[in-house]
Every structure is written in structure tokens, then in C-alpha cells.
Amino acid sequence: MISKEIEAQILRYHLVEKWPVGTIAKQLGIHHDTIERVLCQSGLPAIKKICRPSIIDPYLPFIKETLKKFPRLQASRIFGMVKERDYPGGPDHFRHFMARIRPRPAAEAYLRLRTLPGEQAQVDWAHFGKLIIGHAARPLMCFVMVLSWSRKIFLRFFLDQRMSSFLQGHIEAFEAFGGCARVNLYDNLKSVVIERRADAIRFNPTILEFAAHYHYEPRPVAPYRGNEKARAERAIRYARHSFFAARAFEDLDDLNRQARQWCEGASADRPCPEDQTMTVREAFEQERPRLLPLPDNPYPAEERVEVRVGKTPYVRFDLNDYSVPHTKVRRTLVVMATEKTVRILEGDETLAEHQRSYDKKAQIENPDHLAALQEQKRQARQHRGMDRLQRAVPNSAELMLRLAERGDNLGSATSALLRLVDHYGAKAVEDAIAETLGNDAPHPNSVRSILDRNNKSQGIEPPVSVPLPDDPRVRNLTVRPHDLKTYDSLKEVPNYAKKTQDNKK
């Protein structure tokens, strides 16, 4: 687009100064097609161009006939076909030529779709980049539901697009609206439509069961008809610019808390597109009584996955390992997961319940699950310690390899390094091990010396620990200290000692 001032200059240079199109384009730095468009819009006759012969002219009938049969055939394929017919040109020139002669589809007009209050809601997913959690890069997805009449928006962020998150977004949206619209519009996503051939639709059984629970009609839009769900698309675009842009948040819970405040605040106070005389908040208050009432019990939205336990007492779920009792290895169990917890079941029995992790390759453990296994396996304690040490201090693996080459006791070295981790912290131990390996002195005592030196240079007292035997009789023993004044008597010199001193004098 050019300004009116530039258009006036183009007309003056062409009509008054008699400049040709090429001169105007060169002086103003504007493409000659733009100059010709301005002249044509002003009512001047179109400038006739000299048609020079082109190497593509003999192939035009074949190209047009091919495009007539296959209008969506790519230029690269047509280029290969004319190349087989001895076309001497290159692919770039041919591609630009195809862009000019390819038939354009006729512009389609759309009617503005209107709905009644409480009649329709539109649902969609939106991608908002990624969140780095530990070693995992999780997609940040936003569940969006907008009421078509009042344009009330609901946002809920998740770290995936699983069916459980899809249903949980519906449940929270219904609770926020205080009801459910009679029709929910969707794209043809797999959570709703498994297969579609024209108007023949095979719905996902889960969404049909969910819709029956809340008594609404799930309705997929027609393919390539984005205008039927334009309210949700505009709501996503509005949320990107008005809410998410330059938004700072600590974690997913904080982001969802801010999203709820935005939906109830700035988003609800904007003018209602259906009626500019009132706000979205006022329109929603009129629409709320017309929504379908919610059932007494919400639909169970837990994710259910069957998992196989291998030789180790862990199940793999969503990139992480969760511990189970060691007696349940080599079995197929069921994981019931929510956004916060992971439950592992065998039939109706709950074997384990863990806090859900969104990290990658993490081990979430219950110490009780492995206690019996450690008692049965003599080497289990050492391997467990080495595993914990390697997860806390990754470069300890190189130190252990050096110790093994020298024939040192790996068990005692592991215990010593774990004590250092508990006393000094994993980061300090990792830096000390790196310095030890650099000095070619691989030993836990070298690591301890470096840590003590660093603490001394910073004026920090070395940690003091008094190890107790792993015996409940000792750990549960109550020690009553006696009066320390009794030690004062040791300062007094006995009488026989005084006589001895006097005799020597």
C-alpha cells in the first residue's frame, strides 16, 4: 500500500511531466506494477506492453491443457513433464511463469453467521510455544472455548493435547460459565472425529459419552470451512495479543491463574461484537440463564493407560518412570493419571500413587517400594547409591570409571561422595569433581579437600556430622545429659598433689 501523497506524485509525473512508467518507478523506488495500478485506477487506459517471444510459448497449449485437467498440479511436476518434451529453460523462470497463468479460484462470499443466546459454543486448541521442564521441552497448549452469542472466552493451558486434557478443559469451562451450550463446534481433530467421508462422520466414542453426560450436541465443522468457527479463531488471536504477549509467569499454575483473571477482567469488559451498546460481561449475564444446567457429578476425566512392568519395579508413563512394589514386576498394570497425580492400579487395588512429573527420564520413587528389594539383594544398596549419585552429579560417572581402573573400592567411594553431596550440595561436588579430574587425582579425599578449601576461602565453617549406626535401638535412645558443673571439680588440685609440690620445693 502507498499513501495518497505518493499516488498524487505518480499522476503528476506521468500526466504533467510526461515521465514513462519505468522512470517513475526508478525515481520513486516503487515497482512498476504499482505505478501501472495507480494509473489504471485513475481512469487512464491500460499501458500496452510489448510481448516478446519466449522459449515457453511452444509449450503453452500443453501447459494450459494439463492445468485444465489437474488445476492443483504443482509447478515442479509440470516442469518435469515439459522438460521431458525438450523444454530448454530453468526451473525458476518456469515457476514464476506458472504463478501468472495458473487459474485462480473464484472468490467466495460468506454470510455472517448468527446464533441465539445459549445455543452454541466454539472449541479449539492453540499452540503457544514450549515450556522447558527439567530435561523435557513440553508444548504449551491452550484450550479455548468461546460462547458464540456473548463472546465470553475461557482459557485453560495444558502441557499436552491428550483426551484427558481436552475433557478437563470442557469441564472447567462449563463450571466457569455455569452451564453448557446446546451445540459445541469443533474442528475435525482426532479427539472428536476418528474418520470422515463427506457428511459421513465416525465420532470418537469418548466424546460421544462425554457429550451425553452433559446433554449437548458435538458438531464438527465442514472441512475447509474456517468461517464456521471464526469466533474461536478470533478469540485465539485476541488472546495471543491481549493476554499472552510479553506475559511473565512462574509455572503453569501461575499462568492459568492469570488467564482466569484476564477472562473475568479485561476480556469481559470489552465491547460485545454482537451488540456494541453493551460489554461482553453484560451480554454473558443475559446468556447465562439460557445455558444447559450441569449434572450433579462431573465426568471422570482421568487418563487411563495400560503399562507393562519390566524386570525393574518401574512403569514408564509420559517419558518418566514411576516405582511400584517389587512383587509386581513382569505384569500389566493400569495407570490413572490427572494433571497432578499418577495412580497405578491392578484391578481395583491401588498399588502406588505419585505426584506427576513433566520432566524427561526422571525416576519418581516411593522408598517403601524398594526397601524389601534392597534387603533381598545384597548389591542393591550399592547400585541404588551409584544411581542416585549419578543423577545428582553427572560427572561422577567419569570419577567412578577412573577409580575402577585403579582397583579402588567403588562402594566406599560412592558412600563418601553421597555424604559430600548431602553436606555441600550437588553443584559444589560437581565442580570439585571436575577440578579433581582436571588435576588427575581421582579420589573422594581429593574432592573433600577441594570442598574444604573452597569453604575456607569463603569463610564457611566445614560441616560436622556424627554418623549413627543404622540401629533403631540407638536412634530411638533418649540421652539425658548430666549437670556440667561436676567438671569444675577437676580444676581443683588434690591435697596429696599439693604436698608433693611442696616437698619438691
Describe this protein's structure.
With 505 residues, this protein is an alpha+beta fold. The chain has 5 domains: 1-49, Arc Repressor Mutant, subunit A (Orthogonal Bundle), CATH 1.10.10; 50-103; 120-290, Ribonuclease H-like superfamily/Ribonuclease H (Nucleotidyltransferase, domain 5, 2-Layer Sandwich); 303-370, no CATH class; 377-457, no CATH class. It has 19 helices and 16 strands. It has helices spanning 4-15, 21-28, 32-41, 60-69, 75-83, 91-101, 163-177, 205-214, 230-244, 252-264, 280-287, 367-376, 380-392, 396-406, 410-424, 426-438, 444-457, 472-475, 495-504; strands at 120-133, 136-147, 153-158, 183-186, 193-197, 200-203, 217-220, 271-272, 275-279, 303-308, 314-317, 320-323, 332-337, 341-346, 349-355, 363-364. Helix 2 (21-28) crosses helix 3 and helix 13 packs across helix 15. The chain is extended.
Please sum up the structure shown.
This protein has five domains: 1-49, Arc Repressor Mutant, subunit A (Orthogonal Bundle), CATH 1.10.10; 50-103; 120-290, 2-Layer Sandwich (Nucleotidyltransferase, domain 5); 303-370, no CATH class; 377-457, no CATH class. Helix content is 42%, strand content 18%.
Tell me the strand order in the biggest sheet. Answer: 3-2-1-4-7
Question: Overall 3D geometry?
Answer: extended
Average pLDDT number: 86
- The count of DSSP E runs of length 2 or more, i.e. the number of strands, is 16
Number of domains: 5
Strand content: 15-25%
CATH architecture of the largest domain: 2-Layer Sandwich
Helical segment count: 19
Which regions are unreliable across 5 or more consecutive residues at pLDDT < 50? none
Q: Which structural category fits the helices and strands?
A: alpha+beta
In the CATH scheme, what's the topology name of the largest domain? Nucleotidyltransferase, domain 5
Estimated radius of gyration: 38 Å
Distance between the termini: 117 Å
Task: Supply the CATH superfamily name of the largest domain.
Answer: Ribonuclease H-like superfamily/Ribonuclease H
Helix content: 40-55%
The description of the largest β-sheet is: 5 strands, mixed
Q: Briefly, what CATH class of the largest domain?
A: Alpha Beta
